[in-house]
Amino acid sequence: MKYYVISGEASGDLHASNLVKAIRAREPHAEFRAWGGDLLAAQGATLVKHYRDLAFMGFVEVLQNLRTILRNIDFCKEDIAAWKPDALILVDYPGFNLRIAPFAKALGIKVFYYISPQIWAWKQSRVHKIIASTDRVLAILPFEKAFYEKFGYDVDFVGHPLLDAVSQPAPKPELATGDERPIIAILPGSRKQEVSTKLPVMLACAAHFPAYRFVIAGAPSLPESYYREIMGDSRIEIVHNRTYGLLQMAHAALVTSGTATLETALFNVPEVVCYKANAISYHIAKRLVKVKFISLVNLILDREVVRELIQDEMNEKQMTEELRAILVGGSKREQILAEYKILREQLGGSGASDKAAACILKRLQS
User: Fold this and answer.
1) Do residues 56 and 62 make contact, with C-beta atoms less than 8 angstroms apart?
2) pLDDT level of residue 196 (50, 70, 90 thresholds)
3) What is the reported pTM?
4) Reduced to 3 DSSP states, what percent helix, strand and coil does the chain have, rounded to the nearest 5?
5) Nearest to residue 323, comparing CAs of 201, 148, 237, 181?
6) In whole angstroms, what separates CA 50 from the centre of its chain?
7) What is the architecture, at CATH level 2, of domain 2-161+351-365?
8) Binning pLDDT at 50, 70 and 90, where does residue 121 land?
9) CATH entry, 183-346, from 3.40.50.2000, 1.10.10.60, 2.170.150.40, 3.40.47.10
C-alpha cells in the first residue's frame, strides 16, 4: 500500500518516523511519501518538503507568511492527487492538515489523524471538521478519548509515543573534557523565532550558576552559526542531534513549552518551562486558549507540577529563582520527581507506534 504522511515540525517527524517503522514491520513493501524531516527520510520515506520550510508560529507570523502557506497547501493537494495514496496519515500540525484532510477524503483516500490537534485547548469547533474529514483519530493523551466522546466520536487511545522514544539507547553528546560540574540542559526550541526570543534570557540566567555546566540542545534544522550569532562571546557548548543523550546526563533543564517539556519529564529531569511570543500573538492566544497550563506535564496531571514562566514572567530574575529552587535537594525537586512517576503511569504504557500501526492496517484491510 501507499501512505502519504504529513508532519510539520521536529516532534512530528520523530513520531511519524516511528509509526512508519512500525507499519513497515507489518508491511515490508509499503511505500511512503512524506512532509517531515530527516527521521522520516531515514525510514525510507520520499521527502516532499522538509519541516524547516513549514514552521510558522503565532498569529502574526502566519499572516506574514500566508502566501507561502497557501502555496504549500495547493502544492500538497496536487501532489496527493498525482500520487494517489491508499491512506493519508496526518501528524498534529492542524493549521495545515485540516486543510488537506477533507480534500483527501473527497478523493476516497482513507484519512488517519495520529496525534490529534489540541482542540481541547482552543478552537473546539474544529472537532466537527475532524470528525467529518477523518476515518480514525489515534489519540496519544489519556483525556482525549473522553473529549471526543462528548461529541459522539469514538477514537483509539494508543498511548504516548514518547514512552517508546525515550526508552531507546541515546548517543551521548561529545562534550569538552575536564569539566565535571553537574549539567543543566537548555532547550530553547526548534524554530528560529523561539530561539531568538528565549535563548538570550536563558543565557542571562546561566550566568548566576557558575557551579553548573550549561549545555544547549541545538535543533536539527538550525545551524550552530545561528546560535552563535545570538550568544555573542558566550562559551556555552551546543550539541546537535543529541537532545536525549543530553537529558540523560542533565541535573535540571530550562525548556521551551511544547513536546520538549514532556520529553524532559520522562527523563526525570526537573525543569522550568519557558514561553514568550510576539505580544500580539500572545494576547490573541490568551483570549482563545481554554486550558489552565501550557506544558504537557501540567496538562496531563491537571495541576502545576513544573513552574511555567509565561510572557513577562519569563525574565532573568524569575527564571533564576525557579531554577535555584529545583537544583538543590529540597522539597520542590523531590516533589517534581514523585509527580513524574504518576505522569508515566497515566500515559498508557509502551508500544504507541505499534498500536497505531495495527489500528491503521486493521481499518485499511476491513
Assistant:
1) yes
2) very high
3) 0.79
4) 50, 15, 35
5) 201
6) 16
7) 3-Layer(aba) Sandwich (3.40)
8) low
9) 3.40.50.2000
